[in-house]
Structures are given as structure tokens and as C-alpha cells.
Amino acid sequence: MRRPAGPLARPPRSPVAGAAVVTAVLTAVLWGQEIVDTFAFGGQLDALGIQPRNPDSLSHVLSAPFLHAGFAHLAANTVPLAVLAFMGALRGTLRFLLATLIIVVVGGGLVWLLGRGSSTHLGASELVFGYLAYLLGVGWYERTPVAVGMAVLVLVLYGGALWGVLPGNPLVSWEAHLFGFLAGLLAAALLHRRRPSRWPAGR
């Protein structure tokens, strides 16, 4: 039995408002962390980046995507991160947060396992490439007009960034780009792939 909507019933929450809040919080966390790191710790928190195959660095998988080597590095990531995070959160706040967790853990775990040694990997570009792949994957698995339209828009806006998954500038963690991208595809498959019904159709 459904409860009739009364005068005190809450109006349904707008997905746009929810996505905007999530994006704003994520952006604020990144900038707040960098401000604190720069002015209170002198950049020492960057040591919490991923150092491949260093056992002491394994837990840094959870912190590395939220650290940056200065404000220029953070500024370069902020706009694509905010745009892609907003678009991803429109697909559902809970699923977006789960996708973020998958990207951070799986993408960062692969960087720790397979990344170049004697280096420290950090930066939100792992999330940027993860969200990019996530939105492309959602378009592939859902194949609804909205999902496909968002995937096409993402390709138009940031398709050129896909070259970043290949080795290039030794100062850029292409491993974080590549493994973040693969983790984003995995998140789309786990969270949006249609599964066959457990029950046979009635006759």
C-alpha cells in the first residue's frame, strides 16, 4: 500500500542539485587539502603518493588521487575533474561514489603493482581518466539516449586526452591515466551492466 503524498511530503531531490553538491564537495576537498599541505606542511603530504611495490606505500592508494604537486598541477586537473564528476554524479550519487571507490582502489592498486619504480605517483588525473572511461562505459552498457548522448559529449570534450594513457612525458604518470581508465571501465561494467533475470519469463 502506497502512502499518499501529503502536505508534509518531501519533494523529490533534483539529480542536478545532488550532482552539483557532490562535485562541489570533491573540488573543495582537493583545494582544501592542497592549501593545508602547502601552507601548513610545506608540501610534505606529497609523500603519501604511490611508490610502486613499496609495502609502506600500499595504503597510499587511497590518498594519492587527492594530492597534487602544487597549485598548477591541481588547477590543470580541476576543470576536467569537475565536469566529468558532475556528469558521472548525474547517473546517481551512490553509484558515482561506488565508481569513485573502484577507480581509486583498482586504479591505484594497479599503479602500485605495475607502475615505474623509484617514482611517486599522485594527482586527480587518475580520477579524471577513470570518470571519462566510466561515462563511456555507461553509454556502452546502458545504450539509452541519455547515456549514449553523455558518452558522445564526453568524447567531444575530452576524447583527445585519451593519448595520455600512453608513455610520454617522464614527469607525468601515464600509468595512473591508463589504470584509472581501466578501473573506470570496470566500474561501468559492475554498476551498469544489465544482468539476465534469475527467473524464467512466464508463459
TrEMBL record:
It comes from Deinococcus navajonensis. This is Rhomboid family intramembrane serine protease. PANTHER family: RHOMBOID PROTEIN 2, RHOMBOID-RELATED PROTEIN. Coiled coil: none annotated. The chain crosses the membrane at residues 66-89, 96-115, 121-141, 148-166, 172-191. The keyword Transferase does not apply. It is a multi-pass membrane protein. It holds the Pfam family Rhomboid. Its main location: membrane. The lineage of its organism: Bacteria, Thermotogati, Deinococcota, Deinococci, Deinococcales. It is found in: Membrane. One of its GO terms (biological process) is proteolysis. GO terms for molecular function: peptidase activity. The keyword Cell division does not apply. Keywords: Hydrolase, Membrane, Protease, Transmembrane, Transmembrane helix.
